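Collaborator request, handled under Task 6.
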Amino acid sequence: MQATSFTKAMVATLAVLALILAMDTVRLFAGEQWLSGLVRIESQYYFALFALLVPAAFLLYPTKKWIDWPIAIMVFVVLIGFFVTAEQALDEAWEFGAPDLAIAAALVLWLAILEALRRTAGLTLCVIAGLFSILPLITEYMPGPLNGLPASLQETAAYHALSIESIFGLPFQAFANLVIGFVVFGVVLQHTGGGAFFLNLAFALLGKQRGGPAKVAIVSSGLMGSMSGSVVTNVLTTGQLTIPAMMKAGMKPRVAAGIEACASTGGVLLPPIMGSTAFIMATLLEIPYVEVALAASLPALLYFVSLYLQIDAYAGREQLEGLDDDEVPSLRETIATGWFYLGAFALLVFLLIFLQREALAPYYATAALLVLNQFSPKYRLNWPGLFDLLFNIGKLLLELLVILSGVGLIVGALSVTGLSGTLVNDLLSLAGDSLGLLLLMGALTSFILGIGMTVTAAYIFLAIVLAPALVGQNLSPLSAHLFILYWAMLSYITPPVALGAYAAASIAQANPLQAGLSAMRLGSVIYIIPFIFVLDTSFLLGTDMWASGLAVFEALIGVWLIVGGLQGYVTGFGLVEKMYLRIALSLAGLAIALPDLNLVLPQAPDNNLMLIGGLVAGGLVFAISWQLRRQPEG
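Structure tokens returned to the collaborator:
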């Protein structure tokens, strides 16, 4: 159901108030807090932000007017009550023993969040969050791994609503203190023509190459996916332009859909923004966001290089050409009309990396973008455009907030029952001393949860349950968290769900399952990348530059060989038609790319032997394929 003009106006107004509150909290205004007399402690800020955004979810996703408005008003009143009594609740530790009225209000908030979750994120996540949230009530009756410390309904409700470990736990805190600004920057960039600019820039740079439109999709969808953080939304926006262009260039519809799905999915992994999940990761790890972005940069580079090589090999095998000169925009004109987008992006990176002003950076970059946008005659914001911009900001903020609150219920239930620690021990017990088995179990668990949850929700849950088990096996905490993130988002390109591929298939009018299989094949290297960096921390820029450079070089050579084997075409050499040669290429690539196999397989040979063997095998395969390619036909 489409939102009414009144609802849109209300959401836009609430978004403005929420942004003022958020900007004041991070001391954006001349280093002082204007609202310090009103918002005196941190929990008051959380209650106020929640009150401004979440009640509108019941009006933006309505069922019946006679029930939507009462629920919205009731949730608002409850949160205002918590806001007023926040200091008393802190002094008297209400999360462990609240008055009857506060417990009743907590129950209302608990149920309201589940209903808001059902409306905004779907029934699956609502059911998962709901079942986990009541775990303290039934844990004493559950079997081994789920048997924990019980709590009464009153204790559970108070803990969910009034502690800083559940609804208002670390995911919510990351949203309130960091994510909001980057969400705003991403929405503003799209609404001021940034999406069209990056698409034109990609066409100008890559459009003439073989398979050019597909390579354009990699760059444009990757950049926009990084800012939006939503795979499906990115597919449905940039894919409207890239998928028809790919099909016009001769690509099969299922392949065009698969490429767009892979590119949009990879945007979640691409610095400097990486969607909202990376900021939550930084909060959970208690490290600066810039460390997460730097660590994620080389794996993301490897993923997009592998996609580029896959497309180049596919285009070479199918003898596809690039676009004609008249179909490619001028690079000079593109930059001349949209240089300010690059300026705002550069300012964001400078503030993030060099000044390390994570909380303030997106607001300054957004302000610069809005000012510079007024010099663009084509995309200059007018009043209707500004209204639409504010509405979309409010809509995206409340959706994220509801999802994070639902995940908070899961985390809170595990915390109050003590299961967040015991589940880790159970995983370690099941895996024994086998790091390889633990990684495979973690990958499978992450993938399955990614089917039923958003990337962010699945990551947060597994960061609490699985990451400590991986760290307990002497893995780097950052690599363990990135490993989980990668596998949680793989469900977007892997059948039977493959939501990103299915969304792309709807644009390409292709068979959804075939599109999913194409995406899985084109993005196949991403199934290997997490194992590469989790076993070799030099890939995360965690050691000296020489070690990182060597790790990247090995991985790139390995990926080149793997792609050649998968596509039957090696960039720089040509066709490889014999199946045994293609298998040999892929195996040689794996031997080179995967580090320290002896860590996960005790019987495996030393990594140096694997590297030498891989290089020798690769050389032999290239020699054979080159000789076969030069032989005359017949």
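The cover message to the collaborator said: "The first helix runs from residue 5 to 25. Confidence is low (pLDDT under 50) at residues 598-606. Please let us know whether this matches your experimental observations."
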